[in-house]
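can u do me a favor
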């Protein structure tokens, strides 16, 4: 794709900030829209230090149609990568109306602004949670949808909305990128995952135990039918994921209407394997106990990444060891993330 301006909603977030670095490295001018509800302005300053190029920041909410109308009037946006949204599975069960308002409503507001501005290139941050408990692994894109949380259901709904909008507007090209488990940090250690409050996810929790912010890791069950009894997931390095978005932009014109693409390694890793790799990265043991299974967890879950390679010429490069080393560099340098003094 020609190097025209890309709007990145949620561009100050974990995956958004890493994607901005790769977009700038690839020569795309970037405009970030972020409301900083679950991110920090310092992340944008760090991105500016990590990659040369034009990066403008608009502080605002994707649900605010007036803000979007002004943005599309002032900037010539050729494509949108839409990260802005809520993503805590547990919170979505407690507040489903909030998740549908922001994730589905926010995307509808964005689509309406794009239609008005005649911007027809859309890359959507979807999630493998649309599959629910997969009937087969590795999981292909045509696996049945069975989202189990309002979060997963909101992602499935947005995919349906974008598919229908692409059908109604033949000039539109949409990539529905389904992430497996994003982990890791930029090799500089300057940006990384910075969860507010106690992390739900394995990697940030292990990292916080390793740096002494948390006392120990609870392993949610070790009686699963996997090679060591602990849950198995497809941990994809966030920089690989970011590069997958650049590849999607570069191939968007060749795709048909709305196309779903898994972004994963296609290789599973267990909780124990992550723990051991992290101990190697940080150089000391990580205290852990085995607790009961976590409701809603499945045993094994990893991508069939063949479509990404075929359609985007993209495949993940980095393994769990690299992701642990990069996460440790970020976490040990900034124990309180972007709020570290
Ligand atoms: C991974 C493994 C746990 C924490 C979630 C969301 C999904 C997506 C990615 C947004 C499992 C085990 C975890 C802990 C543990 N996010 N674990 N102790 O559940 O695969 O997916 O994040 O799209 O929507 O559902 O990731 O990191 O929570 O768990 O033992 O303290 O680590 O049981 O086997 P998950 P996770």
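np, heres the sequence
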């Amino acid at each position: 794709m020609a190097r025209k301006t890309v709007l990145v909603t949620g561009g100050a977030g974990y995956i958004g900030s890493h994607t901005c670095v790769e977009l700038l490295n690839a020569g795309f001018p970037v405009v970030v829209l972020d409301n900083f509800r679950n991110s920090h302005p310092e992340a944008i300053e760090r991105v500016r230090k990590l990659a040369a190029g034009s990066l403008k920041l608009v502080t605002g909410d994707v649900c605010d149609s007036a803000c979007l109308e002004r943005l599309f009037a002032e900037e010539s946006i050729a494509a949108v990568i839409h990260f802005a949204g809520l993503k805590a599975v547990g919170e979505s069960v407690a507040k489903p109306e909030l998740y549908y308002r922001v994730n589905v409503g926010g995307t509808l507001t964005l689509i309406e602004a794009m239609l008005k501005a005649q911007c027809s290139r859309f890359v959507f941050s979807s999630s493998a949670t649309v599959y629910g408990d997969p009937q087969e692994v590795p999981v292909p894109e045509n696996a049945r949808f069975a989202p189990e949380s309002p979060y997963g259901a909101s992602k499935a709904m947005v995919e349906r909305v974008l598919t229908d909008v692409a059908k109604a507007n033949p000039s539109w090209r949409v990539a529905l990128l389904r992430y497996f488990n994003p982990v890791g940090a930029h090799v500089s250690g300057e940006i990384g995952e910075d969860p507010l409050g106690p992390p739900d996810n394995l990697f940030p929790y292990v990292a916080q135990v390793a740096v002494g912010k948390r006392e120990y890791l609870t392993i949610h069950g070790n009686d699963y039918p996997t090679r060591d009894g602990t849950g198995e997931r497809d941990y994809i390095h966030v920089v690989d994921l970011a590069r997958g978005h650049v590849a999607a932009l570069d191939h968007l014109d060749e795709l048909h209407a709305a196309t779903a693409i898994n972004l994963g390694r296609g290789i599973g890793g267990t909780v124990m394997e992550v723990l051991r790799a992290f101990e190697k990265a940080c150089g000391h043991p990580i205290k852990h106990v085995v607790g009961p299974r976590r409701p809603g967890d499945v045993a094994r879950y990893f991508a069939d990444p063949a479509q990404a390679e075929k359609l985007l010429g993209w495949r993940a490069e980095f393994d769990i060891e690299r992701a642990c080393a990069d996460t440790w560099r970020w976490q040990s340098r900034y124990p309180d993330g972007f709020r570290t003094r």
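The mean pLDDT is 97. hope that helps!!
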